[in-house]
Design a protein that fits this description.
Order of helices and strands: HHEEHHHHEHEEHHHHEHHHHH
Number of helices: 16
Strand content: under 5%
Helix content: over 70%
Radius of gyration: 22 Å
Mean pLDDT: 86
Structural class: mainly alpha
Low-confidence stretches: none
Largest sheet: 2 strands, antiparallel
Number of strands: 6
């Protein structure tokens, strides 16, 4: 009897798309564990009180992806897309590194560099929102323009050179620890929780979903579509700026060609893995966070297994495709139909076709 009741409960859990992301994370960790039984070991560094290990490295690597995934999730919920997050990252990093290269090494300089980089990222996000909400351009075109222009802006800021600087306080943002955990992950987690509370404990989340589901009905209901689009794209730009700070602070260098390169694709994948539809109208911030963690685990697994750099994109694509197929209710129904009696299977196929 207990088996009969546990099966529907398990199926109910698996209907949440983000649960397949959790399963994929566990499987990838088990693959790494099979190669090295100590892979998941976490040790305590008595000298500085920090925790060290592969899991800690994964949490640190996931932080920038979490930031851009959360912004991307809200943008996609409005039936939009933001292809510029990678370029906004490099612009934010370029501003910070260029400012710190000529500033004294103190907390004040780090705070001012952080403020300047995030302010410019916010402005770039607001410009994307202006093109979409006010000018009326398609989100794909608007953010594609910023995607191409962003790295040009970064090259203008740094005179086309990779800029390095030194500032202990700024570096601490990406490499420091609090309670033994990476501060960069704790900041990212705090931002995720803050944004989640903002959109789910108020009507803001429902209004964002409304303009993505049916813009005309939302307008008739009194929802300020233009203002919401400006806010959502601004937030996406701001969070991309945070990710850019994380990425550059870790090495205190901005690479105008590589920083944030193709991370917009990772953000979109994280959002889709988390169960948010690209058609808009619904979003899942928890799922996007799990998707970001999966991308980080996948990147670390590729390196740990020694997959050739030329084969890395194919390896990642294979894992993502398998995961998306497992998430598909249609595919799962067809597989279940093959194990049922012919009459039941034909009925299920008719339901799927409908």
């Amino acid at each position: 009897m207990s088996g009969d009741t546990s099966r529907p409960a398990l199926l109910g859990i698996l209907r949440h798309q983000y649960m397949w992301g959790v399963i994929a994370i566990v499987l990838l960790l088990l693959v790494n564990l099979a190669k090295d039984p100590t892979y998941l070991a976490i040790s305590y560094n008595a000298a500085n009180g920090n925790l060290v290990g592969n899991l800690i490295d994964i949490l640190r690597a996931a932080a920038p992806i979490m930031m851009i995934a959360i912004g991307m999730c809200l943008v996609i919920a409005t039936s939009g897309i933001d292809l510029s997050v990678g370029s906004v990252m490099v612009v934010a990093g370029a501003v910070a590194m260029e400012f710190l290269s000529g500033a004294p090494d103190n907390v004040g300089s780090a705070a001012l560099a952080l403020a300047l980089s995030l302010l410019l990222a916010l402005v770039l996000g607001l410009f994307n929102g202006f093109l979409v909400a006010v000018v009326g351009l398609q989100p794909f075109i608007s953010t594609l323009v910023m995607m191409m222009a962003g790295r040009g802006i970064a090259k203008v800021i740094t005179s086309g050179q990779n800029t390095a600087s030194t500032n202990g306080s700024f570096r601490w943002l990406a490499n420091g620890y609090v309670f033994g955990l990476p501060v960069v992950f704790l900041i990212a987690l705090a931002v995720v929780i803050g944004v989640g509370l903002l959109v789910r404990r108020s009507a803001l989340g429902l209004m964002i979903e409304a303009i993505g589901m049916d813009p005309k009905a939302a307008r008739l209901a009194g929802v300020n579509r233009r203002g919401l689009l400006l806010a959502v794209y601004s937030l996406s730009g701001l969070l991309a700026g945070v990710a850019g700070v994380f990425a550059t602070a870790s090495v205190m260098t901005v690479d105008v060609s590589r920083t944030g390169y193709q991370l917009e694709m990772d953000a979109i994948l994280a959002v889709v893995i988390g169960g948010t539809s690209l058609a808009g109208g619904k979003f899942n911030l928890a799922g996007a966070t799990i998707g970001a963690l999966l991308i980080a685990v996948l990147d670390k697994t590729v390196v740990f297994l020694g997959v050739s750099s030329s084969a890395t994109p194919a390896f990642k694509a294979m894992v993502i495709v398998i995961l998306c197929l497992l998430q598909s209710e249609r595919v799962r129904t067809l597989f279940r139909a093959r194990r049922r009696p012919p009459a039941v299977a034909s009925q299920e196929k008719e339901v799927v076709a409908a």
